[in-house]
Amino acid sequence: MSLETLTTFFGWMTVVHFVILTIATLAMFLMRDWATGLHAKLFDLEEQQVRQTFYSWLATYKLLIFVFALVPWLALHIM
């Protein structure tokens, strides 16, 4: 596998992950009350706990995108 192929792969992987992150963030902000109410009832949690868990998930997902997609793409791009 060539560096050009890997660079392209990591670049598109980064784009796809950021699109998923953006859609998840927009969905959570646009359907906040419905989504938190549904998950609170489903898992027998407080709505505040559901919101905190979701924001924590978003932050973790963003960090994982940086570590496993964006940084390798940048490193390959610099090479």
What ranges have pLDDT less than 50 throughout 5 or more consecutive residues?
none
Taken from the alpha-carbon principal axes, the silhouette is: elongated
Q: Order of helices and strands, N to C?
A: HHH
| Overall pLDDT | 96
Helix content: over 70%
Number of helices: 3
Structural class: mainly alpha
Radius of gyration: 17 Å
End-to-end distance: 15 Å
What this model shows, in words?
This protein is mainly α. It has three helices and no strands. Helix 1 packs antiparallel against helix 3 and helix 2 packs across helix 3. The radius of gyration is 17 Å and the shape is elongated.
Task: Outline the secondary-structure elements.
Blueprint: H1 3-30, H2 32-43, H3 47-78
Helix pairs in contact: 1-3, 2-3
Brief summary:
This protein is mostly helical.
Which terms would index this structure?
mainly alpha
